[in-house]
């Protein structure tokens, strides 16, 4: 970041605020968005992964606290998903990938939030279905592992699955995903810590801006609005980052 001009730094911080705002508004921590931004501004993978997980912890916890007040929280569903996800995220966090491979995998995983924010999302089912415990454990383990490996919380993958399987409604999905992300991000960061953490010197600014955007997004998202135009704009930013990661 120190190599950037003041104008580009301001642009980065402004986009960081928007990313945190939008993700928290739908119950997510925003790691995939933070990683996309850091990739666009050429931060190293060693810095990107722990930084995104740290920001994720703060923003997803804020989102959970907001949504928890407005839904009947289903703790049994959360723990069915998180029981294997947490150790799997820790194991994924232990693995250090080659920078080129990491960028390719991240580029592929960015397709999930692009689909999410472009509006291609399963609708809330009229009637909820019974949760399959074996399937919930399996999905949690897979999402958790790749969350720790890439440096995301996994909510961007979990949310459409919960809706597609009709295990939860929109607000319930946001609340469950938010806490799932928090737990996965903590486990992934602990896995990263075993190999030594590298943060940007401006990490405290990152946290402050993400918390501000996340708090506002979670407050408004839990109560009032969807922000369709802003989501489409964010999808465009993610598409650009995805193209950069996959094609360069």
Write the layout of secondary structure elements.
Blueprint: H1 6-25, H2 31-40, H3 45-68, H4 75-94, H5 99-109, H6 111-117, H7 133-150, H8 155-164, H9 170-193, H10 203-223, H11 228-247
Structure description:
InterPro entries: TM_pro_TauE-like (IPR002781), TSUP/Inactive_protease-like (IPR051598). It is a multi-pass membrane protein. The protein has 248 residues and is an all-alpha fold. It has one domain. It is built from 11 helices and no strands. It has helices spanning 6-25, 31-40, 45-68, 75-94, 99-109, 111-117, 133-150, 155-164, 170-193, 203-223, 228-247. The protein is globular.
> Ranges with pLDDT <50 over ≥5 residues?
none
What is the element string, with H for helices and E for strands? HHHHHHHHHHH
Overall mean pLDDT = 84
**How many separate helices?**
11
Helical content stands at over 70%
Number of domains: 1
Cα radius of gyration in angstroms:
17 Å
Number of strands: 0
Roughly what fraction of the amino acids lie in strands?
A: under 5%
Give the structural class.
mainly alpha
What's the short story on this structure?
Belongs to the 4-toluene sulfonate uptake permease (TSUP) (TC 2.A.102) family. The protein is mainly alpha-helical and 248 residues long.
Descriptors for this entry?
248 residues, mainly alpha
